[in-house]
């Protein structure tokens, strides 16, 4: 790994990991994956050291599998695992750049495993409102009940929140801050990973959650009883847990900091 700094971007599907990774990879000191042919150029698809997220059911499902949660205790942490993983990824990076970037959703539940392989790794975790992630993920997995998709958001972040105190280099940011206040948010990321100039904010769109927010709030007063009942049920079930993560199921403007221990 020489003198390179490895940065892992993590966050559930539909949480904003892709736009953040693109901002990072556009910096002249950072090299990310591009043109690999793999889905979203994610490192999970470009290696054979650990199972890809599809092994555990993919979007909206993977965090429910106990096997998806990897830590330093995993049998996959072997003496040569880090070298093998770096060896499979390094041909895809520009090694003349000091910061090497990898982004995959499953990183959210395997930060401790990656830290065991790369002790000085830095983790940037993106968190997006559970309502928006739930509704947008349902476009991909229409057979899953909304309740189950919402529960997946909370379960995945419960796992990550328990792992966070074990991480040496961690920054958590809210997607809402990234798109509404891109300059200061990206400036904080730049400082965290040790870049000597700002990150570009081009390509970030502040309205990508609007349709899902309107859909959700329309259910609150819907004349269709099953929609209003669904809204009330999900609010009743998850409001307290959402508040614990700096969100509200009823007031979508709430975006308090994510607790990290």
Would you mind describing this structure in some detail?
The protein has one domain (5-208): P-loop containing nucleotide triphosphate hydrolases (Rossmann fold). The chain is an alpha/beta fold and 261 residues long. It starts with a strand and ends in a 17-residue tail after the last helix. The model has no long low-confidence stretch (mean pLDDT 95). Helix 2 links the parallel strand 2 (30-31) and strand 3 (99-103). It is globular. The chain contains nine helices and five strands, in the order E-H-E-H-E-H-E-H-H-E-H-H-H-H. Helix content is 38%, strand content 9%. It has a five-stranded parallel β-sheet.
On the 0 to 100 scale, the average pLDDT is: 95
Q: What share of residues is helical? A: 25-40%
Which structural class best describes the helix and strand composition? alpha/beta
Main sheet strand line-up: 2-3-1-4-5
**Corresponding CATH architecture:** 3-Layer(aba) Sandwich
Tell me the radius of gyration: 18 Å
> Low-confidence parts lasting 5 or more residues at pLDDT below 50?
none
CATH fold description: Rossmann fold
Q: How many distinct beta strands?
A: 5
Number of domains: 1
Shape: globular
Strand proportion? 5-15%
CATH domain class name: Alpha Beta
Span between termini: 30 Å
Most strands sheet: 5 strands, parallel
